[in-house]
Amino acid sequence: MITRRKLLMLLPAAAFAWEYVLAGTPETAPGFNRNEHWWGMLMDITKCIGCGNCVRACATENHVPDGYFRTWVERYHVADWHQETPQVDSPGGGKNGFPPSTAVGGKNFFVPKLCNHCVDSPCTQVCPVGATFHTPDGVVLVDDKYCLGCRYCIQACPYGCRFLNPTSHTAEKCSLCYHRITKGLTTACCENCPTGARQLVDLKNPADPIHEFLKTHSVQVLKPHLATGAKVFYNELDGSVR
Amino acid sequence: MRVNRFKDAEHLLRLAGAFAVGIALFLLLRAYFVPKSFGEYGHYRGAALAEQSDKPISYAGHQACEDCHGDVLEVKKAGKHAGVNCEACHGPLARHAEDPASVVPVLPDTAVLCARCHEANIGKPKTFPQVVSADHSGGAVCKTCHQPHSPLLQPGAKQS
Amino acid sequence: MPVEGFMYPNEIELQWSVLIVVYPFVTGLVAGAFILASLERIFHVAAVKPTYRLALLTALSFLLVAPLPLQLHLGRPERSLEMYLTPHTSSPMAMFGFVYLWYLMAVILLEVWLDYRHEIVLLSQSTTGWRRLIYRVLTLGSSNISEGALRVDDKVGWVVTLIGIPSAFLLHGYVGFIFGTVKANPWWSSPLMPVVFIFSAMVSGIAIVLLVYMAMMKIRHEPIDMRCVDTVAQYLLYTFIIDFGLEMLDLIHRISVADESFRSLDFMIHTRLFFSQVVLQIALGTLVPILTLGLIQIFHVPEKVRRMAYAICGCLTIIGIFAMRWNVVIGGQLFSKSFLGYTTYKLDLISREGELVAAGLLILPFCILAVLMKLLPPWPERQAASGD
Fold first, then answer.
1. Residues of B19-45 as b/e, b for ≥16 C-beta within 10 angstroms?
2. pLDDT reading at B84 higher than 60
3. Hey, is the C-beta of B133 within 8 angstroms of any chain A C-beta?
4. Which pLDDT belongs to residue A25?
5. Are residues C93 and A149 in contact, defined by beta-carbon separation less than 8 angstroms?
6. How many CB pairs under 8 A join B and C?
7. Which residues on B lie below 8 Å from C146 (Cβ)?
8. Residues 4..43 of B with a Cβ closer than 8 Å to C: which?
9. Quick check: B53 and A46 CB within 8 A?
10. Long-range contact set of residues C121-124: C-beta below 8 Å, sequence gap at least 24
């Protein structure tokens, strides 16, 4: 029988436990277990056409403020053998595509960029309070309720993928559409890429066809000398790419 | 003599006491202000994971479209745009997928839409179909000759 | 915004403003002033004793102002307590919060209190009104100023100063480390960075105490102790030589190694950073003071000329070290991490992170110093009736 005494003892215990219940059970896809995934992305340079669909889709999906970019596309022109001095442009981050260029000859290609969700990310290392962190499934997120806006992480990112949101005054960057991938969907950018140049990959899933692609093709990461453990892999990335 | 020495250092003990009070205050602040879920999975607020996962989506994903628009899917599957997902052209339609009657998608204007991908640009892969639209159709919009869901022109149709 | 070449889209706007230039400048003055004070206490350089208490008060004034530019810069200043509540131990910025707290509580305040305790107790008995209240609080309830107690104060004070020297190095070295550890930025990323910061801090700290001392003597119509300022100027020279040596080492190393960032940085120094780096920092802020102070060591220069030279060198030094902080912080953000472009820093006049606020933050420590000097006079009592 539930006596008043028992209830008085149970209620605080229940209140205490409820917080943990609420904290640990997100509204994710049924059966989603974070520990079973390790997220990354593949960028196929041979397929990117610089249409800017990804930049627009990301801005829509994640309410990215104008003039700031969670993802963007760069256009490269490499003349002859001059790998160290490419001509690069990214008008408006490539959001509205690219205007015709005056470049003639040489190597020309597009490079989409975003947060590399590094395993040894310098950004999470320098955050003074733990507002940016690694999820158990390998995504680097920003807790905008805890961020101080000190901008140290923005300085520490070698790839320039972070910015300060002018409304919330907290740091912001690509979240790998965490709210989508935990529901079994792909990221907004990958969903809207018309050529399949961008593909989400689950590095813990051996049956993932992109995972298979990584094992059988020549892929590179950006700035490998910085040993960030980047998990965005580029197929056929030219050496001139910064 | 011992009493004297103690008296001479008494002010230091008072100082130590002040420090102790300060440290105690700090620990109290800590207990009160640090969010309960902090440290659950790592050096961050564990509740943030749920907050991020629970955000609403804007793009439904092509699976959602295929549930109702199977006929279009059949045409698209057999054509050159097989790999192009619906919302890449039709825009974010999660609200439409949830309640089709509430949001009626606006058909995109092909004059603007198609050029985004197919306007010739030196950066695009050579094998990718691209044209200089000014020279291509003599002013006619793309839909005049190309069916967007299966854009390759059929034999006998108007060629540029 | 005028961008030259290519910058990653999110890099065009600078992240750390002039306030983040003011902050290492101010903490540097703290560390440097304290090191000067320790010269007398630990190394028994008796000649600089007239500046001892002044140096301590100067250090305290600047230390109290140091967190302000940081608070004003934060996107969410109301969350700043989080740095103390959940500090991330891998973050130099978080750990610095504790270094600052240590230095404020366990070094500066303690040393000032121990050194002034005698006067504080006396003043708590001789003054009236709210001043009496302040002094009584500062006594912490103890009025023991017997010989024995003062001996204890002296001994403990000596230990605090001793600990204070590496603490001062830690305080400003850590600021250097905050920049030095950012591998993404080749202008900052260097093991030399904390060392360069420490020595430039010492230079600026010594210079500011020299200037304040000379200014206060002028204001009080008292003669400047030439033996004191000559010795201070000597130490300024020695420290300057080391500081210059370190900066040249960094420069020569960069030129020699010429890694992927070199061309981009070289171009930046010759263009956007030319005035602040080559003219202000190196030529006017370092070479002119070193040459002037060096010449004074070699040739006999009359007292009046020496005094003027010290004043001018002191000012040039302060400007030069401020320029150095500017060149590190702002310079480090003017070039793209793609090494293919440059941006511009737009400094507003009136905004939370603008010129007026920066100027205000630089003036504020002097206001605090004026109050401290009234409360805790660094001068020996004059024979004539003192005003207060």
1. eeeeeeeeeeeeeeeebebbebbebbb
2. yes
3. no
4. 36
5. no
6. 44
7. 7-8
8. 4-5, 7-12, 14-15, 18-19, 22, 26, 29-30, 33-34, 38, 43
9. no
10. C121/C145
Neighbours of chain A (3+ CB pairs under 8 A): B, C
DSSP states of B29-77: HHHHHS-TTBTSSSSSBTHHHHHHHTSPPS---HHHHHHH-HHHHHHHH
State whether B48 and A146 contact (CB < 8 Å). Answer: yes
Record the tokens describing residue C227, joined without a space. Answer: 């033996």
Mean pLDDT of B4-12: 81
Q: Residue C314: what residue type? A: G
Q: Where are the domains of chain C?
A: 4-375
- What is the C-alpha separation between A171 and C207, in angstroms, rounded? 38
**Residues in chain C with pLDDT values less than 50:** 383-388
Tell me how far apart the alpha carbons of residues C145 and C112 are, in angstroms, rounded to a whole number. Answer: 16
The nearest alpha carbon in chain C to B5 belongs to C148
Angle between helices C129-138 and C110-126 (to 10 degrees): 140
pLDDT of residue C388: 41
Contact B149, B85 (CB under 8 A): no
pLDDT digits (tens, 9 = 90+) for A32-52: 888 999 999 999 999 999 999
| Residue A179 and residue B52 in contact, taking contact as beta carbons nearer than 8 Å | yes
- pLDDT per residue over C192-231, tens digit each? 999 999 999 999 999 999 999 999 999 999 999 999 999 9
Instruction: Tell me the chain A residues in contact with residue C6 when contact means C-beta distances shorter than 8 Å.
Output: 74, 87-90
Distance of alpha carbon C338 from alpha carbon C332, whole angstroms: 13
Q: Considering CB atoms only, which of C81, C144, C151 is closest to B11?
A: C144
Q: Quick check: B49 and A26 in contact, CB under 8 A?
A: yes
- C387 CB within 8 Å of a chain B CB: no
CATH number of C4-375: 1.20.1630.10
Contacts of B154 (CB under 8 A, 6+ apart): none
Per the structure, the count of domains in chain B is 3
Residue in C closest to B17 by C-alpha: C140
Of A128, A149, A226, the CB nearest to C83: A128
Instruction: Answer whether A61 sits within 8 Å of B56, measured CB to CB.
Output: no
Residues B24 and B70 in one domain: no
- In this model, does residue B140 exceed pLDDT 90? no
* Side-chain half-sphere exposure of B41, counting CA atoms within 13 A: 19
Q: In chain C, what residues touch A59 (CB-CB under 8 Å)?
A: none
Question: How many CA atoms does the CB half-sphere of C290 hold within 13 Å?
Answer: 17
What local confidence, expressed as pLDDT, does residue A27 receive?
Answer: 44
Q: CB distance A129–C10 less than 8 Å? A: no
Task: Say yes or no for a CB contact (<8 Å) between A192 and B38.
Answer: no
Q: Which of C6, C82, C184 sits opposite A158 (nearest CB)?
A: C184
Q: Tell me how far apart the alpha carbons of residues C198 and C191 are, in angstroms, rounded to a whole number.
A: 12
For the stretch A78-114, pLDDT in tens is: 999 999 999 999 999 999 999 998 888 999 999 999 9
Q: Using the 8-state DSSP alphabet, how is residue A231 labeled?
A: -
Q: What share of chain B is helix, strand, coil (3-state, %, to 5)?
A: 50, 5, 45
Task: Provide the chain C residues 179-208 that lie in CB contact (below 8 A) with chain A.
Answer: 181-185
pLDDT at residue number B2: 54
Query: CB of C79 within 8 Å of any CB in chain B?
Result: no
Domain final residue pick, B105, B124, B143: B105
Domain encompassing residue B8: 2-36+44-53
Listed in sequence order, the residues at least 6 apart from B52 whose beta carbon sits closer than 8 Å to its beta carbon are A141, A175, A178, A179
Residue A132: name the closest of C82, C78, C332 by CA. C82
For residues B153 and B120, state if they share a domain.
Answer: yes
Enumerate residues 6+ apart whose C-beta is below 8 A from B41.
A135, A136, B49
Residue (of C25, C339, C379) closest to C186 by Cα position: C339
